[in-house]
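Customer escalation, tier 2.

The customer says the design service returned an amino acid string that "doesn't look like it belongs to this structure." They asked us to rerun it and document both sides in this ticket. The original structure tokens are below, unchanged.
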């Protein structure tokens, strides 16, 4: 269901950047679950390039029962750009949830003006996909922007509107990255490193997918996947 989204991202990345494949820890790259009624496969990809220190995406293909496309792009530490976050989920026809955002690392007005205001035009064209839903797992004011796409929707809207919105958000993200001035100050870069690490810790500790991973692949695998791959700058909670 979301494979065309993943293929599109891959093509964009290879077209625009000089990608280097990054290793994924043993056992985490691909896994097949036979625990549920239907087999489910989870597979992940990871790259880096000079501008982007970590590009990762994951696809869960559980047939009709589950289709998930999840991705985070982390800029290199000389760019204070938001992270690009994608979480497209489908658990059967009636449970489709899509989230896409430029996830801000800082919240001061200058930062939001520079990186979040430019999203407004795109967001306003896809108001059906910006539903102001309440967040149960995350704090909407922590690493989410005012102009995120966040919607419960249907398969038809995914193929049409969401695909268009997705391309527009991606294009805007590449534009912001193109325009970004690399920082040379060591302290400024350190501040970004810390902010990206805090994002990983925050995200790993409350990832709503933890239960899903555990039910498919077991608790131990789930913890490793969260802390060694998805959010690898985070430390496991004691
Ligand atoms: C919600 N994301 C969810 C849910 C699941 C996942 C199972 C709960 C859906 C429900 O309400 O039942 C799944 N999260 C995943 C998967 C991975 C993951 C499969 O990290 C990893 C492979 N989530 C992200 C990113 C964003 C994001 C990058 O990982 C940013 C766009 C957003 N996911 C996000 C939000 C919700 C969500 C905002 C709703 C959570 C809430 O209600 O607080």
């Amino acid at each position: 269901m979301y494979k065309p989204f993943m293929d599109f991202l891959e093509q964009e990345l290879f077209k625009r950047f000089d990608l280097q494949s990054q290793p994924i820890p043993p056992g985490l790259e691909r896994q097949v679950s036979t625990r549920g009624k239907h087999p489910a496969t989870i597979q992940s990809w990871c790259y880096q390039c000079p501008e982007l220190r970590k590009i990762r995406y994951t696809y869960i293909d559980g047939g009709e029962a589950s289709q998930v496309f999840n991705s985070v792009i982390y800029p290199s530490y000389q760019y204070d750009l938001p992270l690009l976050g994608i979480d497209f989920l489908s658990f059967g026809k009636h449970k489709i949830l899509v989230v896409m955002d430029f996830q801000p690392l800082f919240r001061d007005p200058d930062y939001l003006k520079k990186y979040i205001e430019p999203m407004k035009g795109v967001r306003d064209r896809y108001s059906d996909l910006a539903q102001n839903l309440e967040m149960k797992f995350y704090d909407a004011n922590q690493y989410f922007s005012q102009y995120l796409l966040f919607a419960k929707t249907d398969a038809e809207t995914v193929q049409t509107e969401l695909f268009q919105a997705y391309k527009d958000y991606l294009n805007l993200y590449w534009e912001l990255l193109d325009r970004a001035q690399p920082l040379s100050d060591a302290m400024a870069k350190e501040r970004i490193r810390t902010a990206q690490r805090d994002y990983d810790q925050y995200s790993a500790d409350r990832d709503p997918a933890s239960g899903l991973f555990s039910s498919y692949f077991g608790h131990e695998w789930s913890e490793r996947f969260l802390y060694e791959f998805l959010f690898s700058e985070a430390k496991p909670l004691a």
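Tier 2 assessment: The sequence is consistent with the input. The pocket of biliverdine IX alpha is lined by residues 58, 60, 68, 70, 72, 85-87, 89, 97, 99-101, 135-138, 150, 207-209, 212, 230 (CB under 6 Å). The chain has a mean pLDDT of 96. Sent an explanation to the customer and offered a walkthrough call.
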